Amino acid sequence: MFFTPVKAYARGPSIVLVKEAVAKFAGEKIIAVDGYDKIDQERLPGKKITEFKSWGKHFLICFGGFTIKVHFLMFGSYTIDEKKPDRKIKLHLKFRHGEINFYACSLKYLEGDIDKHYDWSVDVMNEHWDKKKAKAKLKAIPNALICDALLDQDIFAGVGNIIKNEVLYRVRVHPESTIGEIPNTKLNKIIGETRNYSFDFLEWKRAYELKKHWLAHTKKECLRCDLPIIKKQTGTKKRRSFICTNCQVLYK
């Protein structure tokens, strides 16, 4: 049995892990469908999955001419080749060589070419991610706070709150810094480190040792300064930030 919850805070790296876990079903035809979700299930039997993709927090099951978008929300999960007896199945996909079951998630059909629905260049985990585009979008919102911008899925698809906190600690920038006041070289470091940390996150998640590598998130003391780390809700999104006010510079 393969069961895993997909925490909403993990965003891109965790969805990449889902994609890897179900890869064996690419090219397989669905032979049976069940579950309590209200999407049109009758169109799925006999359809072959062409590929699995991910974009930010979205897991995508692609067919010829349409795609199922899966959003795991706060408590979503999935199993491979076995059902979880204590949870109602949102969508059950049966194949000749196994099955996938989804729980407590949102499901939606996307019609037509999946490339028409997504800009892959804003997904920090995607090979087509474009750091120049990310910087141009940041420059276009000089009055925004960097803590909000890092969570903006139209700029950094796949970035969640942990990544935000760890990146800003790594580059020594206070989360309430105004984008237009952050020096250009420092802004470049934030952009680059966001992608770097996302892939570090993925590797640590694969090894089941993510929390061991946190430097700021949920921590009480700065490892650099031996001073208290402050926990505060920041930005318009009011998400938790963990800040060392001594070494994380406030550009404002």
From TrEMBL:
It catalyses: Hydrolysis of DNA containing ring-opened 7-methylguanine residues, releasing 2,6-diamino-4-hydroxy-5-(N-methyl)formamidopyrimidine. Residues 10-98 form the Formamidopyrimidine-DNA glycosylase catalytic domain. One of its GO terms (molecular function) is oxidized purine nucleobase lesion DNA N-glycosylase activity. Coiled coil: none annotated. The keyword DNA-binding applies. Keywords: DNA damage, DNA repair, DNA-binding, Endonuclease, Glycosidase, Hydrolase, Lyase, Multifunctional enzyme, Nuclease. GO terms for biological process: base-excision repair. Belongs to the FPG family. This is Endonuclease.
